[in-house]
Design goal:
InterPro entries: Acyl_Trfase/lysoPLipase, PNPLA_dom. One of its GO terms (biological process) is lipid catabolic process. It comes from Hibiscus syriacus. The protein is an alpha+beta fold and 138 residues long. The protein has a domain of 91 residues. It is globular and about 30 Å long. The chain starts with a helix and ends in a 12-residue tail after the last helix. The N terminus is likely disordered.
């Protein structure tokens, strides 16, 4: 889904350079890189000041918190119950797609600034068989 989002809106991303070409028989796939600042601007324009509380349905969005070294889940249900669990959607989307090899770790604060995390994309934790041990059903 993220790939579809990037491909559909690729004209909104400032292209920096051609990263690599991967040869596949019989065709070629060309991979491009996008500026992190361009992604931030696009997410800012898309979500403006919307927060987890504003989502229409319950969602769980994973990332990996480098400070606590555990999976961190952005949760609509938690945001409704506790103000310190409410984050801006533009920050949630950016951190959950923050490739540690490209963007590095991302600092994110809750709307009330009581919760602070230093995180990278959720795949780091979700690819770990024990990474989802602390998840909960909503």
């Amino acid at each position: 889904m993220t790939l579809t989002f990037y491909c559909r809106l690729s004209s909104s991303f400032p292209r920096e350079k051609l990263v690599e070409t991967v040869s596949l028989l019989p065709s070629r796939v060309i991979l491009s890189t996008f500026s992190p600042s361009g992604v931030k601007k696009l997410l800012g324009r898309t979500f403006e000041e919307l927060t987890l509380k504003d989502t229409m349905k319950s969602i769980l969005i994973p990332c990996y918190d480098l400070c606590s070294k555990v999976l961190f889940l952005f949760s609509h249900a938690d945001a409704l119950e506790m103000d310190y669990s409410d984050f801006k959607m533009k920050d949630v989307c950016y951190v959950t797609s923050a490739d540690p090899t490209v963007v590095g770790a991302v600092k994110v604060r809750s709307v009330d600034e009581r919760t602070k995390i230093l995180a990278v994309e959720g795949g780091v934790a979700m690819n770990n068989p024990r990474g989802g041990d602390n998840t909960r059903a909503e």
